[in-house]
Amino acid sequence: MSPLCPLLLALALAAAPGAHAACPVPADLKHADGTRTCAKLYEKSDPYYDNCCRGPVLSVEPGADLPFLPSGWANSASSLVVAQRCELTVWSLSGKRGKTRKFFAGTYPRLEEYRRGIFGDWSNSISGLYCKCN
């Protein structure tokens, strides 16, 4: 086997869309009828990006204002994707209290990579949210 084969395989995987994570791209956040979804929160995250954005999913519609997340979702989101031209504001405590952060259009497969204060991160820390789209 040529020493170039592993290098070519690595380059092919790097160039393939979606090769690094199971997360959808922001442009794909739509319903079957073509209407837009503002964001999706996922319960599963993993040190391997290929295993992120899995498990139960909470779809958030444009204009959704949820000071209290649905049963079982408070402090359980580990990955999220925000649609194009949308913005997701999250709070660390229910009732829109505590620390806050805005996530703009993009894919966030590992929320533990986003700081929440000095010692915390946003994985399993979202208790309220507001999502808007232009």
SS field, number of helical segments: 1
Poorly predicted spans: 4-20
Tell how many strands the DSSP assignment holds: 8
The residue fraction in helices comes out at under 10%
Major sheet summary line? 6 strands, antiparallel
Summarize model confidence as the mean pLDDT.
Answer: 85
User: Proportion of β residues?
Assistant: 35-45%
**What gross morphology would you assign?**
globular
Can you tell me about this structure?
The chain has 134 residues and is mostly beta strands. The protein contains one helix and eight strands, in the order αββββββββ. It has one helix at 4-15; strands spanning 39-44, 54-60, 65-66, 79-93, 97-108, 115-116, 120-121, 128-133. The strands form two sheets. Strands 1, 2, 3, 4, 5 and 8 form a six-stranded antiparallel beta sheet that branches. A two-stranded antiparallel ribbon has the order 6-7. A hairpin with a 3-residue loop joins strand 6 (115-116) and strand 7. The longest helix has 12 residues, at 4-15. It is globular and about 40 Å long.
